[in-house]
């Protein structure tokens, strides 16, 4: 009888392992410094999620960093550091509504967080262009162009991603900050301001 129980435990364990490996990656992970930025989010957090959905998916609590009309930023309460999310609310005033307000973009200011392709803060403009060949539009930076600043904007080829962008800000040929998200918010120069 003991041999049958061991066999049954082995079969159930194998089945559970197979089941967990078949789940989407985002269903298995929390939001960490190892989470990768895509054009539509980072790790388990997707653009378009409400704050409540993002908290549930990422298994972290988000806190607000201040509100300006219907736009504000949140960040993970306990990390990873250097990661912010722009949130858009349908209401210009009132308290933050975790069930209604939605994430519009991801902002990265930490050199520990990378894109799915491996781009990060500190990379050269040439490296960004080589990671996304033929898909980078270079434009002058609004405030630092006179000192060599640019926006390097990744424009996806896939029609289903046409409303998303990945924007790298550079100074002296190096990435200083980057963000991803939906249009038009991902291209806002001063965040919510």
Principal-axes geometry comes out as: globular
Number of continuous helical runs: 4
Determine Rg (CA atoms, Å): 20 Å
Oligomer: single chain
Helix content: 10-25%
The helix/strand class is alpha+beta
Largest sheet report: 8 strands, antiparallel
Instruction: Please provide the count of β strands.
Output: 11
Strand order of the largest sheet: 4-5-6-7-11-10-9-8
Order of helices and strands: HHEEEHEEEEHEEEE
Low-confidence stretches: 7-28
* Global mean pLDDT: 88
Percentage of β-strand residues:
25-35%
Distance between the termini: 70 Å
Question: Could you explain how this protein is built, in words?
Answer:
The protein has 193 residues and is α+β, with helices and mostly antiparallel strands. It contains four helices and eleven strands; from the N terminus they run ααβββαββββαββββ. A hairpin with a 2-residue loop joins strand 1 (37-38) and strand 2. It starts with a helix and ends in an 11-residue tail after the last strand.
Topology, please?
Elements: H1 2-22, H2 25-28, E1 37-38, E2 41-42, E3 45-46, H3 51-58, E4 62-68, E5 71-76, E6 83-88, E7 102-108, H4 125-131, E8 136-140, E9 150-154, E10 164-171, E11 174-182
Antiparallel strand pairs: 1-2, 2-3, 4-5, 5-6, 6-7, 7-11, 8-9, 9-10, 10-11
What is the gist of this entry?
With about 190 residues, the protein is α+β, with helices and mostly antiparallel strands.
Features:
single chain; 193 residues; alpha+beta; eight-stranded antiparallel sheet; three-stranded antiparallel sheet; 11 strands
């Amino acid at each position: 009888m003991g041999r049958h129980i061991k066999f049954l435990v082995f079969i159930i364990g194998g089945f559970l392992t197979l089941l967990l490996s078949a789940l989407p990656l985002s269903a298995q992970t929390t939001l960490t410094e190892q989470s990768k930025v895509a054009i539509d989010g980072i790790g388990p957090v997707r653009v378009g999620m409400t704050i409540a959905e993002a908290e549930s998916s990422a298994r972290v609590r988000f806190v607000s960093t201040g509100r300006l009309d219907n736009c504000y930023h949140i960040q993970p309460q306990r990390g990873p550091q250097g990661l912010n999310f722009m949130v858009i609310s349908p209401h210009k005033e009132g308290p933050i509504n975790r069930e209604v307000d939605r994430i519009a973009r991801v902002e990265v200011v930490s050199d520990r967080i990378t894109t799915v392709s491996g781009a990060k803060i500190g990379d050269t403009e040439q490296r960004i262009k080589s990671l996304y060949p033929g898909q980078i539009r270079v434009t002058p930076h609004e405030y630092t162009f006179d000192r060599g600043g640019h926006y390097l904007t990744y424009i996806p080829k896939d029609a289903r991603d046409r409303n998303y962008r990945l924007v790298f800000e550079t100074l002296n040929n190096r990435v200083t900050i980057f963000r991803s998200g939906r249009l038009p918010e991902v291209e806002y120069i001063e965040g919510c301001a």
